[in-house]
Design goal:
about 210 residues, mainly beta, six-stranded mixed β-sheet, five-stranded antiparallel β-sheet, about 0% helix, elongated
Length: about 210
């Protein structure tokens, strides 16, 4: 199987933010094998390389095969997970397709009893959407280093959640108060003012 993980949370993502770094993890699953191998790549809709691989795990290496970037095992591995950093492509690439093949070997020095399998994963390009109540104009949060900063237009409550809906932060605000929170991963930020008006953003952090 293939997983693309947010390095801040180590949780699988369902879309990528252009230019962000993720962890690609290829898993070869078997209950009785003692040696494992894998090879994988990432391509766009035209069949070209999508993004870039760096920093392979100790049991993996990076290769270029006929112009195709490859993440693969560097020898028979006693562990079944192969990882690297994947830097997502620039804006406008669209869906990225990941493909891998894996082998689970029983160590008898022949191919008898060994198993081979493939896997694929499509990851869509995320978008950053700004949604404002039509009657209310307010500044958008801005990012400095690893923090978001925002000035509340009035008293209310700001809630920061991840894409799975888990609350990361909840802040009571006063009018004109400057608030800051960690910029990690993709966040959904929702502000509800005391008069009932609201603002919502999807923000891409580190």
């Amino acid at each position: 199987s293939i997983e693309i993980l947010d390095p801040a949370t180590n949780e699988a993502v369902t879309s990528y933010m252009p230019g962000n770094e993720y962890i690609i993890r290829m898993l070869v699953e078997s209950s009785d094998a003692i040696e494992f191998g894998a090879q994988g790549t990432a391509i766009d809709a035209n069949g070209d390389n999508a993004g870039a691989f760096t920093n392979p795990s100790g049991n993996a290496q990076l290769e270029d095969v006929g112009g195709r970037h490859i993440l693969e095992h560097n020898s028979a591995s006693a562990t079944n997970a192969f990882e690297a950093t994947w830097t997502a492509p620039a804006t406008g690439m669209g869906t990225v397709s990941f493909y891998m093949s894996g082998v689970a070997a029983n160590g008898n020095s022949t191919s008898q009893g060994d198993r081979y399998a493939g896997a694929s994963l499509d990851l869509t390009e995320a978008t950053i959407d700004l949604v404002l109540a039509p009657e209310w104009e307010a500044p958008r949060p801005f990012r400095t280093a690893n923090q978001w900063t925002w000035q509340a237009p009035q008293a209310g409550r700001l809630v920061v959640s991840d894409l799975a809906g888990r609350t990361l932060d909840a802040i009571r605000t006063q009018e004109s108060q400057t608030v800051r929170w960690n910029a990690q991963g993709i966040q959904v930020v929702h502000f509800v003012a005391e008069d009932g008006r609201h603002l919502t953003w999807k923000l891409a952090g580190l």
